[in-house]
Amino acid sequence: MLDFCENWSLHRQDKMNNAISKGLRSPMRSLANLRRAKAISTSIVHNETILVKNNEEFVNKVMNNEKPVIVNFHAEWCEPCKILTPKLKELIEPLDNLDLAIVDVEENADLVHTFEVKAVPAVIAVKNGLIVDKFIGLVDADMITNLIDKMSGKKTNS
Questions:
Q1: pLDDT at 127
Q2: How many CA atoms, within 13 angstroms, populate the side-chain half-sphere of residue 80?
Q3: In the 3-class helix/strand/coil scheme, how is 64-116 assigned residue by residue?
Q4: CA distance 4 to 21
Q5: Which residue in 6, 8, 67, 77 has a CA-CA distance of 20 to 30 Å to 112?
Q6: Catalytic-labelled residue, pool 69, 70, 81, 100
Q7: One Gene Ontology cellular component annotation (predicted)?
Q8: Could you read off the pLDDT of 93-148 as tens digits, one per residue?
Q9: d(C-alpha 7, C-alpha 5), whole Å
């Protein structure tokens, strides 16, 4: 009788171990298959263009961003803004270590006041929650490129 009980116990344990190991392997296989199935190329846009809607969003997505952010204060009626904003998007879009935030001055009066924006376009560069550079107006292409290079780490501060 004891032999039967021992054999039954071993048989049950083998079945449980087998069930447990199948259960463990099954999700791993599923995960591996998912990874293989989802092997698609990454998106073309590497950064985030942040369309700031309010102060809270500005704090969360600009001031608390791990990456540096170039903030473009603009207005729909501003002709120089219509030149600068697309240029900033074009230059920043391929970068994965720099974000662009766009703030409409008509919709964000508090931010305009906080950052003392007196004219548009106004651009500030934010890194680790601090303003590290800025310019006002439509500046030459070299100044824009230098700011982007500096913020993205391509050029060191000189």
A1: 97
A2: 13
A3: CCCCCEEEEEECCCCHHHHHHHHHHHHHHCCCCCCEEEEEECCCCHHHHHHCC
A4: 25
A5: 67
A6: 81
A7: mitochondrion
A8: 999 999 999 999 999 999 999 999 999 999 999 999 999 999 999 999 999 999 99
A9: 5
Closest CA to 155 of 68, 64, 61, 50: 68
Would you call 5 a catalytic residue per the annotation?
A: no
| Cβ-contact 85, 72 below 8 angstroms | yes
pTM (2 d.p.)? 0.69
Question: Tokens at residue 69, please?
Answer: 């952010």
Which of 50, 69, 78, 101 does the annotation list as catalytic? 78
pLDDT exceeds cutoff 80 at 12: no
